[in-house]
Amino acid sequence: xxxxxxxxxxxxxxxxxxxxxxxxxxxxxxxxxxxxxxxxxxxxxxxxxxxxxxxxxxxxxxxxxxxxxxxxxxxxxxxxxxxxxxxxxxxxxxxxxxxxxxxxxxxxxxxxxxxxxxxxxxxxxxxxxxxxxxxxxxxxxxxxxxxxxxxxxxxxxxxxxxxxxxxxxxxxxxxxxxxxxxxxxxxxxxxxxxxxxxxxxxxxxxxxxxxxxxxxxxxxxxxxxxxxxxxxxxxxxxxxxxxxxxxxxxxxxxxxxxxxxxxxxxxxxxxxxxxxxxxxxxxxxxxxxxxxxxxxxxxxxxxxxxxxxxxxxxxxxxxxxxxxxxxxxxxxxxxxxxxxxxxxxxxxxxxxxxxxxxxxxxxxxxxxxxxxxxxxxxxxxxxxxxxxxxxxxxxxxxxxxxxxxxxxxxxxxxxxxxxxxxxxxxxxxxxxxxxxxxxxxxxxxxxxxxxxxxxxxxxxxxxxxxxxxxxxxxxxxxxxxxxxxxxxxxxxxxxxxxxxxxxxxxxxxxxxxxxxxxxxxxxxxxxxxxxxxxxxxxxxxxxxxxxxxxxxxxxxxxxxxxxxxxxxxxxxxxxxxxxxxxxxxxxxxxxxxxxxxxxxxxxxxxxxxxxxxxxxxxxxxxxxxxxxxxxxxxxxxxxxxxxxxxxxxxxxxxxxxxxxxxxxxxxxxxxxxxxxxxxxxxxxxxxxxxxxxxxx
Length: 696
Fold this sequence. Notes:
Elements: H1 18-54, E1 69-74, H2 76-82, H3 89-100, E2 106-109, H4 121-127, H5 133-140, H6 145-155, E3 158-165, E4 191-192, E5 194-196, H7 200-203, E6 208-211, E7 224-226, E8 228-231, E9 234-237, H8 239-247, E10 253-256, E11 259-262, E12 265-267, E13 274-277, E14 287-289, H9 290-294, E15 307-312, E16 320-321, E17 329-330, H10 331-344, E18 347-348, H11 352-375, H12 379-402, H13 409-452, H14 455-464, H15 469-473, E19 479-486, E20 494-500, E21 505-513, H16 517-537, H17 542-556, E22 563-571, E23 576-582, E24 588-590, E25 597-598, E26 617-620, E27 626-630, H18 632-635, H19 646-655, H20 662-677, E28 686-693
Parallel strand pairs: 1-14, 1-15, 2-3, 2-15, 3-6, 4-8
Antiparallel strand pairs: 3-5, 7-13, 8-9, 10-11, 11-12, 13-18, 16-17, 19-28, 20-21, 21-22, 22-23, 23-26, 24-25, 24-27, 27-28
Helix pairs in contact: 1-11, 1-13, 3-6, 8-10, 11-12, 11-13, 12-13, 16-17, 19-20
């Protein structure tokens, strides 16, 4: 191949890295911000739950009405003493009456009495038609248990629960609410179509009414209670808020914008109008079994001046909920903690300025990352790292000292994303610079080698890449081989190789890369390495392997590069040769005592031109037969007048051989070409590979 050697184009001027630093940092920060909107809520909840586990709130240590909440639990002991739930209203009346005797501020029922008592006299008589009419009349004349319960409720400061539902229930417009909630709650406030209330006989006499709705977060954990709930369009107080209002003797609950007001006290809420609690462990001293209350076995001041909540806490009837501190707890204790929190300031707050500070810290980290990239100094990295490391401790201090929820993940994620984006830019830029420097280094070294004679070392390296005479001779005793490679200059684009595939098969190939000199030598090294790797590794046949090799070479070749190759797979047991020709010189067959002849092959185009399905072609060698593979550096050798050595010169030289000994044929052919070229310099690289089959 005689194409002119390519010359390296001058490297384009380097663009300053600083031009892209701020853009890349900003894009990375934007990606981090978007990612934080997705991953931050669940991670934030987990982090704040962990803070609560590490530092639970001390119940009964607040500033306002500390320790003024008690819980009466209808537990296993109570069911054993009174009977299964639901109890007759008589016992609930006695329970309420006993608690009210200690003059609590309010009694809240964490339950709803939506049906009349099953043991009311009229319902009891209906169960036994055999009862004597006079006895039935006497029983029916007795006051109903609901009436007795209603009388007690009317005389005690009782708040009955209600439930917002979307199915059958009471029209919110027809439900009595006193006092009304002032203002409009936030848009995200839970809204229900109907209200489930206790029976009218009980609901009408209660001091107050409140909603029991308090849905958990999407992970099933209760962290918040509603300050108010929307029933239709009417805001109704949550149970904890209503009990806290009564405890503080506040006229009504109110909303001012998105701020909840309990008298003059501002209660922080989220966009759903809910108060996030800082949970603690409810003290055992404030828990009382209903059985012990009915037996009057509790201290005489257990409920005096307190908010008392009555709830269910026995297997099968309990309202079980998960909180940050407990995987299973009773819902009535969540209400109790919520009341205590509203009275003592035991809530968690995440005001708008705190959320804004997270974005501000994230922006600060982005600015530090940008400065580090644009100034190429280390100190902004150290400052950014220090700020990032301080974020979790800062979150803990704000939680512990002010019950504030500062999320360290968001600013950390924004700053880290900006740093990763900038680091990626720097890595890509450095990689490009290394490639340019490597290319420049190669060019400089090649130039220096030409000036200082160092290309002789490159020649030695190239010649060291092809098999030695001893290696060729020791491949297989059934196949004798010899070869020579002489670059036209110090290095060139010709190559050959011989590889054992298995005990019986040997692989030979001869190739020629377009051009001469260093570019051809570099591409020769790539081509030879790929050829050896692909041809040995592929198991789909020789043609399939050659097709794969062509595609692999095309990946890394430019328009000026091409490779011709003749590949021979020899079976030493049978003498069968399988050959593929990619634009290369045809092989020459030599039989003992006969003139040499060229084996015409169908073949295909050189590699790196187009994808092509190269055919396999077969040839059999009898014992004593030989095959010569060569590059066009042999046939295109020129004398001083420009005449070519040609195929005729090759045939003439081989025709004068004494035998088919490969080493002798190679030496005689090289000598004939060099004698023909003398005194001119060789015009192309020269490679000859000769094989002689000795038989099985």
